[in-house]
Specification:
- This is Veg family protein.
- InterPro entries: Protein_Veg.
- The chain is 19% helix and 48% strand.
- The protein has 2 helices and 6 strands, in the order H-E-E-E-E-H-E-E.
- With 90 residues, it is α+β, with helices and mostly antiparallel strands.
Length: 90
């Protein structure tokens, strides 16, 4: 059952490759990390986000679909204007 859920999360992200997204990740010790970038690629177990250069020191981050399932990461797809289009959840 969990494998099907992970596959559903992957399929819900795939149509948004190349679009701007916002990430909220659990940084541990009650810390939340917020990042923005472009969904660059989806792979069988992970997805890659190319971060905005002016805001972050490194170029890319990767997260697993299990991070979304366990609510460690929240992904929000945005329009070019920065308006929220959809939030990807379990």
């Amino acid at each position: 059952m969990a494998k099907n859920t992970l596959l559903e999360i992957k399929r819900s992200l795939e149509p948004h490759v190349g679009q701007k997204i916002m990430l909220k990740a659990n940084g541990g010790r009650r810390k939340t990390i917020e990042r923005s970038g472009v969904l660059e690629e989806t792979y069988p177990s992970v997805f890659i986000v190319k971060l905005d250069q002016e805001q972050h020191a490194f170029k890319r981050v990767s997260y697993s679909y299990a991070d979304i399932l366990t609510e460690s990461v929240q992904v929000t797809v945005c329009n070019d204007d920065g308006e929220v289009r959809i939030t990807i959840q379990q």
